[in-house]
Amino acid sequence: MSPREHPGMRRFERKTVIITGAGSGIGAATALRFSDEGASVVLAGRTETKLKKIAAQMDDAATLVQVTDVSDHASVEAMVAAAVERFDHLDILVNNAGIAVTGKLQDISVEDWRCVIATDLDGVFYATQASLPHLIATKGCIVNVSSVSGLGGDWNMSPYNAAKGAVTNFTRALAMELGADGVRVNAVNPSLTFTNLTKDIKDDPRLLAEFAARNPLGRGAEPAEIADVIAFLASHDARFVNGVNLPVDGGLSASNGQPRQA
User: Fold this and answer.
1) Is the pTM above the cut of 0.90?
2) pLDDT at 7
């Protein structure tokens, strides 16, 4: 079965979903998955050409391309307004947009720190707050794309760890707060996934081998493998799943960190 064949699965007909960071990687794969299952999809991101390339693979009548900078509050509010104007309602929000900066803390500039926090954390807050009245009206749900980096630390990735750790706990807090309104909030926490963000790892055979050696499945993930889990969490199948940060990591987080023994 190809990544875009889901026989008999139309779980999102008459549903509207916003996906941030939809121009590539996990966001693009998620947009295609929701489209395949009948959703009206709002593809949000900073680069129109990338968004249009993904949209060209989807049903034009059920697709909206919305150029959005999630670090800008007004831009995010315009995104939500455009989605509701086009499709009349909103059922699902996928907060996926994210960036990373690497380096030792003493070498991280204030500008780099603010850029990561503004995109990876502030953007989640902005989109969630702007979408909330519409999600309450539809008893909808939110899926945040956090990371295994939001569950534990990495070497030389403190801004990203800080942002994703915050998203992880923001997910828990919102699940508690919004459950009474009928809005579920969950997150996926992927390990190494082959996207533009991780191109340097994929292009480094030594580093890629180290990642593979630490993962029980012996490899990184493809974006579609994360998108499949996002779709599950957003579906009726997960109707009693709330406040979960779900590692989608091939078993990486099952380890206590000690080396492999013969």
Assistant:
1) yes
2) 60
